[in-house]
Amino acid sequence: MIFRIKDLTKIFIIIDPDSANLAKKVAESKPDGLFIIANAGGTAEITQQLRKIGCEVQIYSPLWSNTVDLIKKGGTAVEGAFVVGAIDNNDSSKEFLKFKEDYLQKYGDTPSFSSVYSYESATVLFKAIKMGPNLKPSTLKKNIIKIGEFQGLEENFQIDQFGDVVRYYKVFRVENGELRKAD
Fold first, then answer.
1. Where are the domains of the chain?
2. I need a labelling partner for 99 at 20 to 30 A (CA). Which of 22, 57, 141, 156 fits?
3. What's the rounded Cα separation, in Å, for the pair 132 and 49?
4. Tell me: the pLDDT tens digits for 166-182?
5. Residues 75, 58, 18, 112: is their CA dihedral positive or negative?
């Protein structure tokens, strides 16, 4: 799903620790959409305050808020929100299903993007360590870049020549209390 912004006449950056006051300022500006750059708790809190005052603006949020806490803390207020993510908890790949089952058994909750990224990062590091010849950070970085492509739990990803990850990101929508792929 691709979102195009046709009119950028109303771009506001509002920083206010009082979420009720922030919601009031946003509602008064009558935006068509609101991109909230916050963690799950912050996104949930701001969205709840907006809904309390009757503001039904479309909510968009980055990967940072794409955790189970968004729905747990946001409840029905975050229904319909669009959230960027790289991990689909409904993925049916063999590797991801095994990881998800093991994670649920050990921690009693579904894995978040950070738990998946942590697992994948450790896998990348172990492969680089095995290549040797030493454990210097510069050697490990060179080894990681040399390998280049890695098998993730859901799909492969690359580490480019600068050491940055290259992976496919998805758009999710909160529907009936769950994050579902929207693209």
1. 19-86+168-181, 94-166
2. 141
3. 53
4. 998 899 999 999 999 99
5. positive
Nearest CA among 90, 95, 92, 23 for reference residue 59:
23
Identify the burial level of 65 via C-beta atoms within 10 angstroms of its C-beta, where 0-12 means exposed, 13-18 middle and 19 or more buried. Answer: buried
- CATH class for the domain made up of 94-166: alpha beta
The domain 19-86+168-181 having CATH identifier 1.10.10.10: the answer here is: no
Do 126 and 142 touch, CB atoms closer than 8 A? no
Q: Which residue has the tokens 């896998």?
A: 123
How far is 182 from 73, CA to CA, in rounded Å?
A: 21
For residues 55 and 27, is the Cβ–Cβ distance under 8 A? Answer: yes
Q: Do domains 19-86+168-181 and 94-166 have the same CATH topology?
A: yes
pLDDT, tens digit (0-9, with 9 covering 90-100), for 9-23: 555 555 667 889 889
Tell which residue, 82, 11, 13, 20, has the closest CA to residue 45. 20
